[in-house]
């Protein structure tokens, strides 16, 4: 007997970052976080449980993964098998849709789509809170990609209490995120390793926990009030303080490269020229710029001159998880 389902999930950019786990097995974070789901970057995943298979078979962007590279997916499918009556192995076919071969695909959209497709194919009927909790077990940031728009991840303290909650799902605020592709290659220090090192060795970590609490308290009412300046200043300062945890870890490390610093300088110059925009970045050098739709043209023009037009991608708020009908 076979059972198949397909799901699409979009990636998200954190405005208040998740950077550290309280429980590395269950992926319970040290703090809450808040993100914006983006329309341009998404993953489509089909899962088929098939009694004829002798192992899980994982194909990503047309390439079959070795058993070793498929370990995270296999472990995740084991969770779904435990929760359901499905015992067979599965075929997983996943396609990351990114505008260029940009290395912007993320574990957030991947594990959110896998959670949706695998649970549905296994015959589980999970509401979106339960799906968010399941996605969390694959990758923390996937917790938020179940929902569209602005999403908060409540840290919680155990498996039941740690999940995403939409703050504004249908965003009617004319804002955008301009993504700069400054280095398409895989990050050298994964977020998983990096955040663990910050928790264990940065003397600033206790201050970070207070910063996140304060930033969440500031950014949520600002989003609801469409107060662009407060949202922008909060997200930029939150990102820089997260990255201060990498420089203050031992051994120290950084996700910035020379182009990252140059692009930050350009954002400051744009602001000085009256184009209000703010930057953030995750565990890699690619800067993302938060702006109002009315400023997209000025921002893309400036960065296309600096880094080439193919490396500038405009995204808008995106939707939550979707289940796609089989062709
Ligand atoms: C900097 O979700 O990739 O993007 O839970 O270990 O899979 P794991 O980490 P991951 O970390 C994301 C870190 C971040 C900030 C964020 O998305 O909140």
Automatic annotation (TrEMBL):
The protein's matches in Gene3D superfamilies, at most eight in alphabetical order, are given as: 3.30.230.10, GHMP kinase, C-terminal domain
Pfam families hit by this protein = MDD_C, MVD-like_N
GO CC terms, sorted: cytosol
- Domain spans labelled Diphosphomevalonate decarboxylase-like N-terminal: 9-163
Residue ranges annotated as coiled coil are: none
Enzyme Commission code: 4.1.1.33
Membership in a protein family: Belongs to the diphosphomevalonate decarboxylase family.
The name of this protein is diphosphomevalonate decarboxylase
The record's GO molecular-function terms, alphabetically, read: ATP binding; diphosphomevalonate decarboxylase activity; kinase activity
Q: Where is the Mvd1 C-terminal domain?
A: 177-309
Spell out the PANTHER family in the cross-references: DIPHOSPHOMEVALONATE DECARBOXYLASE (PTHR10977:SF3)
What is the enzyme's main class? lyase
Q: Species name for this entry?
A: Levilactobacillus hammesii DSM 16381
Matching NCBIfam families, A to Z?
A: mevDPdecarb
Give the UniProt keywords, A-Z.
ATP-binding, Kinase, Lipid biosynthesis, Lipid metabolism, Lyase, Nucleotide-binding, Transferase
Presence of the UniProt keyword ATP-binding in the record: yes
For this chain's UniProt record, which GO biological process terms are given? isopentenyl diphosphate biosynthetic process, mevalonate pathway
């Amino acid at each position: 007997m076979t059972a198949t389902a397909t799901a699409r999930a979009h990636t998200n950019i954190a405005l208040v970052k998740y950077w550290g786990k309280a429980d590395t097995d269950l992926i319970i974070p040290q703090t809450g976080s808040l993100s914006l789901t983006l329309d341009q970057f998404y993953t489509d995943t089909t899962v088929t449980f098939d009694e004829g298979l002798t192992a899980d078979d994982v194909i990503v962007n047309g390439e079959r993964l070795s058993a070793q590279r498929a370990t995270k997916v296999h472990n995740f499918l084991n969770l779904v098998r435990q929760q359901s009556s499905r015992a067979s192995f599965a075929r997983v076919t996943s396609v990351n849709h990114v505008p260029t071969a940009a290395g912007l695909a993320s574990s957030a959209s991947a594990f959110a789509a896998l959670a949706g497709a695998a649970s549905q194919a296994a015959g589980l009927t999970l509401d979106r809170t339960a799906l968010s909790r399941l996605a969390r077990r694959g990758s923390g940031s996937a917790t938020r990609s179940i929902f569209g728009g602005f999403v908060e991840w409540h840290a919680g303290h155990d498996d039941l209490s740690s999940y995403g909650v939409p703050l504004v799902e249908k965003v009617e605020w004319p804002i955008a995120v301009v993504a700069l592709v400054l280095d398409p290659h895989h990050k050298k220090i994964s977020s998983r390793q990096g955040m663990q090192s910050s928790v264990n060795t940065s003397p600033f970590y206790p201050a970070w926990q207070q910063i996140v609490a304060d930033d969440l308290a500031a950014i949520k009412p600002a989003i609801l009030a469409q107060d662009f300046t407060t949202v922008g200043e909060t997200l930029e300062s939150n990102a820089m303080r997260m990255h201060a945890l990498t420089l203050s870890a031992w051994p120290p490390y950084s996700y910035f490269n020379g182009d990252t610093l140059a692009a930050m300088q350009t954002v400051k110059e744009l602001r000085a020229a009256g184009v209000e925009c703010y930057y953030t970045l995750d565990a890699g050098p690619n800067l993302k710029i938060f702006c109002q739709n009315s400023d997209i043209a000025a921002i893309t023009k400036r960065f296309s001159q600096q880094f080439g037009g193919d490396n500038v991608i405009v995204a808008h708020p995106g939707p939550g998880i979707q289940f796609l009908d089989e062709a």
